[in-house]
Design a protein that fits this description.
heterodimer, A: alpha/beta, D-Maltodextrin-Binding Protein, domain 2, 14 helices, 43% helix, disordered N terminus, B: mainly alpha, MetI-like fold, two-stranded antiparallel ribbon, 2 strands, 75% helix
Chain lengths: 332, 329
C-alpha cells in the first residue's frame, strides 16, 4: 500500500508539469504549435484535447482540466454561476467562398443582407438583381445557387450566423444564432475541409470557411461591404482592424462577437476564441502554469499565429486581459 | 476415468485419491460453468445498462416533446425544438435502397464463386471481396466525397435526371440539381460496404450444400439456374437471410461514410438526389458542440430510436427464420 501511494504521488507530480485543457477545435492547430515551441523553451508541455466547445465547457465545469476553450463566449450570468474567468486567446476570419466560372478570388462583392438572403434561400440564382447591383462589372450566370453549410456544430457557424442575424432581421427571427442552426436551404458538409471540398467541386455553390481553408484550397473568396459601407478584402490586417475597433469591455468576460464591427477597414466576419478558467482554482500551481503559457503566447506567439492564418490579439486588449488575470484569478 | 465418474457414495471416502480427483473435476466443472455464465450475464448487464442510460438521457427531450418527437421534421438547435422524422426517414430509406442493390449483386457473386467460377479464380475474387469488408468506414467516406460523389455529379446524376427524371412517377424521385452528394449517394456507398457481408456469408452457406443433392439434380437434367433455384436456395435460406440481416444492421448504424456523402440536411425530400440525414450521422455531427440539456437529450433520444429500429429489424429477422423453419420442418 505504501509503495502504491508513493507511486501515485509520483505520478501526480509528473503530470502536474503538463498544462491540461480541452475544447474548441478551431484554435487547435495554433495551440499545438505554441505548445510545441513553449515546451522547447521551458520544458512544460500542454495536453490539449480538441473535443469541441461544448465538450470544453463541460470539462471545465467538471474540473477535469485546468482550462476550457470555447468558440462561443459564455454569458455573464453563466460565468458568475460557475466562478469562471473568460478571455479571448486568438482570432480568425470567416470568408464566403464561391465557385463560379470566370470569377476569380476577390472579384465578387457581397453585403450582409444579400448574403443572408442567399443563405435563407430567398435569392436563388446568381443573376439576381441584388447580386448584380453590387457587381456591375462581373458577368453573372443564370445558374441556381447551391448553398453549402457546416453539418457539425461549430464556432464558425456561430460567428457566421451571428453576423447574418446582425444584418438581417429575417435571419434573426427565422434562423437565429447557435453553433448549429436549422438551415433553410443547402447541403451540410463536415468540417471546414468538407465545406471547402464541396464548394470546390460544385459549380454555382457558395459556402463559408475559416480564412486559412480558403487560402489552402485556393477557393474563390468574396469581398464584403462592411458596417461603414466600405468594400473590404479578407486580410489579416482587416481582421485585426475589427478586433481593434471592438469595444471589448462592453461584455463580461470579453465576450464580444466580432461580427459587423465598426471601422473603415474592419472585416465583418471576424471571430475570436475564448479560454475559460476558474477564479479560485483547486490546483493553484497548475493554473499559474497555464497563465504563464498564455502570457508567453500573447507575447511571442503572434508570428506563429499569422503563419497559420490566425490573427493575434491586439496589444491593448492583451494588456487588459493580463490585468484581469492579476485581479481575478487566485493562483496564490 | 469412466469408473471414477460412475462411482458415488461412501466407497469414495475409502478411496481418498479417487475422491480428490473427483472433487477436482467437479470444481473444474463448476468454475467453467460460473465463468461462461458470468460472460453471458455480463453481456445482458451491459445491454441493460445501455438501455437504461439511453432512456435516462433521452427522458428530458422525450418528456418535453412527447410523441411529436418522432413525427415532426423541425430540428432547430436555436429555439430547441426537435423532431426526429427526417433522420429516421433517411436511415430507413438509405438502408432499404442499399439492400435492394447489394442483396441481388451479393447473391450473384456468391453463386458465381461457388458454382460457375473457374477454380483458380475463386480464391482471388473471394479474398478481394472480403478485403472490402476490412476497409475502415472513414476511408469509404473520404473516397465517397472526393472520388465517387464528383463522378456521380458529372456523369450519373445528369443522366438519371435526363432519362428517369422525365418519366411520370419517377420524376419525383430524380428531380433537382445534381449535387453529387445526397440520399442516393449514401445508399450506393452503403451498398458497397455491406456487399462483402452478404457475399461471404452466402458463399459459405452455398458451399455447405451437400454435393450429392446438386449432383442428383444435375443428373435429372436440371440447368444451373434450376439447381440454384430449387436445391441451393431452399437448403440455404436461413443462412442467407442471416447474412442479409447482418448487412442490414450494419447499413442502419453506419456513421462516418454516410456523414460524408449524405448532405446532412434535416429535411425530407421526395428526390433521392437531394440531401438528407440519418440518425447516426446527426449524432456524429452535432454531439461535440451540442450545448444545452435539451439538445444533448434530443441526440441521445435519436440513439434510443436507432436502438429500437435495430431491435425491430432483428426481431423481424428471427420471426421470418422461425416461420421458414416451421414450414420446412
Amino acid at each position: 500500500m505504501a509503495a502504491a501511494a508513493v507511486l501515485v504521488g509520483g505520478a501526480t507530480i509528473a503530470l502536474a508539469a503538463d498544462i491540461s485543457g480541452a475544447g474548441a477545435t478551431f484554435p487547435y492547430p495554433i495551440y499545438a504549435k505554441w505548445a510545441d515551441a513553449y515546451k522547447k523553451e521551458t520544458g512544460t508541455g500542454l495536453n490539449y484535447q480538441s473535443i469541441g466547445s461544448g465538450g470544453g465547457i463541460k470539462q471545465i465545469q467538471n474540473k477535469t482540466v485546468t482550462f476550457g476553450a470555447s468558440d462561443a463566449p459564455l454569458k455573464g450570468e453563466e460565468l458568475a454561476k460557475w466562478g469562471l474567468v473568460q478571455f479571448p486567446m486568438v482570432m480568425g476570419g470567416i470568408v464566403p467562398v464561391v465557385n463560379l466560372d470566370g470569377v476569380k478570388a476577390g472579384d465578387l462583392v457581397l453585403d450582409g443582407p444579400t448574403l443572408a438572403k442567399i443563405f435563407l434561400g430567398e435569392i436563388k440564382s446568381w443573376d439576381d438583381p441584388a447580386i448584380k447591383k453590387l457587381n456591375p462589372n462581373v458577368k453573372l450566370p443564370s445558374q441556381p445557387i447551391a448553398v453549402v453549410h457546416r453539418s457539425d456544430g461549430s464556432g464558425t457557424t456561430y460567428n457566421f450566423a451571428y453576423y447574418l442575424a446582425d444584418v438581417s432581421a429575417d435571419w434573426k427571427s427565422k434562423v437565429g444564432v447557435n453553433t448549429s442552426v436549422e438551415w433553410p436551404v443547402g447541403i451540410g458538409a463536415k468540417g471546414n475541409e468538407g465545406v471547402a471540398n464541396n464548394v470546390g467541386q460544385t459549380k454555382g455553390s457558395i459556402g463559408y470557411v475559416e480564412y486559412a481553408y480558403a487560402l489552402q484550397n485556393k477557393l474563390t473568396y468574396t469581398k464584403m461591404i462592411n458596417k461603414a459601407g466600405k468594400t473590404v478584402a479578407p486580410t489579416s490586417e482587416n481582421f485585426q482592424a475589427a478586433a481593434a475597433n471592438a469595444d471589448w469591455k462592453s461584455q463580461p468576460g470579453y465576450g464580444v462577437i466580432l461580427g459587423n464591427q465598426p471601422g473603415d477597414t474592419s472585416w465583418p466576419m471576424t471571430a475570436a476564441t475564448w479560454i475559460l478558467m476558474y477564479k479560485e482554482p483547486q490546483d493553484k500551481a497548475a493554473s499559474a502554469e497555464a497563465l504563464k503559457f498564455f502570457g508567453w503566447a500573447y507575447k511571442n506567439g503572434g508570428k506563429m499565429a499569422e503563419g497559420l492564418d490566425y490573427v493575434p490579439m491586439p496589444a491593448n486588449v492583451v494588456a487588459d486581459i493580463e490585468k484581469t488575470w492579476a485581479a481575478d484569478i487566485k493562483t496564490k | 476415468m469412466t469408473d471414477i465418474a460412475l462411482q458415488d457414495g461412501p466407497e469414495i471416502a475409502a478411496l481418498p485419491a479417487r475422491a480428490r480427483v473427483l472433487r477436482r473435476l467437479r470444481l473444474g466443472d463448476a468454475t467453467f460453468y460460473a465463468l461462461t455464465q458470468a460472460a453471458a450475464i455480463a453481456v445482458l448487464a451491459l445491454l441493460g445498462g445501455v438501455i437504461i442510460a439511453l432512456l435516462l438521457g433521452a427522458m428530458p427531450a422525450l418528456s418535453k416533446f412527447g410523441f411529436d418527437f418522432v413525427t415532426t421534421e423541425r430540428w432547430n438547435p436555436v429555439t430547441e425544438v426537435f423532431g426526429a422524422i427526417a433522420p429516421i426517414y433517411g436511415t430507413i430509406v438509405t438502408s432499404i435502397i442499399a439492400m435492394l442493390i447489394a442483396v441481388p449483386i451479393g447473391l450473384m457473386i456468391a453463386l458465381f464463386l461457388t458454382e460457375l467460377c473457374p477454380i483458380p479464380l475463386r480464391r482471388p475474387i473471394g479474398i478481394t471481396i472480403e478485403l472490402l469488408a476490412g476497409i475502415p468506414s472513414i476511408i469509404y467516406g473520404i473516397w465517397g466525397l472526393f472520388v465517387f460523389a464528383p463522378f456521380l455529379q458529372q456523369y450519373v446524376q445528369p443522366a438519371l435526371i435526363n432519362t428517369l427524371g422525365g418519366l411520370p412517377g419517377l420524376s419525383v424521385l430524380f428531380a433537382g440539381p445534381p449535387y453529387g452528394i445526397g440520399v442516393l449517394t449514401a445508399a450506393l456507398i452503403l451498398a458497397i460496404m455491406v456487399l462483402p457481408f452478404i457475399t461471404s456469408i452466402s458463399r459459405d452457406v452455398f458451399e455447405a450444400v451437400p454435393p450429392f443433392l446438386k449432383e442428383a439434380a444435375f443428373g435429372l437434367g436440371c440447368t444451373t439456374w434450376e439447381v440454384f433455384r430449387n436445391v441451393v436456395v431452399p437448403y440455404t435460406r436461413v443462412g442467407v437471410i442471416g447474412g442479409v440481416m447482418l448487412a442490414l444492421g450494419r447499413a442502419l448504424g453506419e456513421t462516418m461514410a454516410v456523414t460524408f456523402v449524405i448532405g446532412n440536411a434535416h429535411r425530407i425530400s421526395s428526390s433521392l438526389l437531394a440531401p438528407g440525414t440519418t440518425i447516426s450521422a446527426t449524432i456524429a455531427n452535432e454531439f461535440t458542440e451540442a450545448v444545452g440539456d435539451i439538445y444533448t437529450s434530443a441526440l441521445i433520444a435519436l440513439g434510443l430510436i436507432l436502438f429500437v429500429i435495430t431491435f425491430i429489424v432483428l426481431a423481424a429477422a428471427r420471426y421470418m427464420l422461425l416461420r421458414i423453419e416451421r414450414r420446412i420442418g
